[in-house]
């Protein structure tokens, strides 16, 4: 017998390992030691959200998910073969064609904030389709459900200099996420509200 919660917990565990590898690589790409982003607990929280999009009889009149950037540090997304995901690139919406067995990895707002724009969160949306239902599974790395966390996140000090001053104010993850959801999905409004 296949128990859904067993599968989900195993999936979460595997993605946590993958997340660790990605955070190592992202730290190195910023010129920091590989463990930097995990040392500051960017990989600690994991929120897994399963989306079901029913077929829509009039896709031109509806949207699956409104334009937004993800709030957390990083998102690992699994989509099925239906398609509909688009990213904003050079002010144009570009289809993210489904590739069997491949994950989509999105930089989130909090990674933009700590990297002081070294990485930029990506704006994306999901169109509806009238062909078949669509399923996607998003794994967000973010710690808003650790209410005891007192860690403040701001631009990483090692990345700052006279030429590269801090662009964002410090925040608790839960305060950032609260602000994000108080606005609702709306492009990149939340992160711009944290600019100095
Ligand atoms: O359904 C998708 O492919 C993406 C959903 C999404 O953008 C999100 O959960 O943040
Ligand atoms: Fe998203």
UniProtKB/TrEMBL annotation:
Keywords: Iron, Metal-binding, Oxidoreductase. PROSITE patterns: FE2OG_OXY. It holds the Pfam family 2OG-FeII_Oxy. Residues 43-143 form the Fe2OG dioxygenase domain. GO terms for molecular function: dioxygenase activity; metal ion binding. InterPro entries: IPNS-like_FE2OG_OXY, IPNS-like_sf, Oxoglu/Fe-dep_dioxygenase_dom. It comes from the Eukaryota. The keyword Oxidoreductase applies. SUPFAM superfamilies: Clavaminate synthase-like. PANTHER family: FE2OG DIOXYGENASE DOMAIN-CONTAINING PROTEIN (PTHR10209:SF851), OXIDOREDUCTASE, 2OG-FE II OXYGENASE FAMILY PROTEIN (PTHR10209). Belongs to the iron/ascorbate-dependent oxidoreductase family. This is Fe2OG dioxygenase domain-containing protein. The lineage of its organism: Eukaryota, Viridiplantae, Streptophyta, Embryophyta, Tracheophyta.
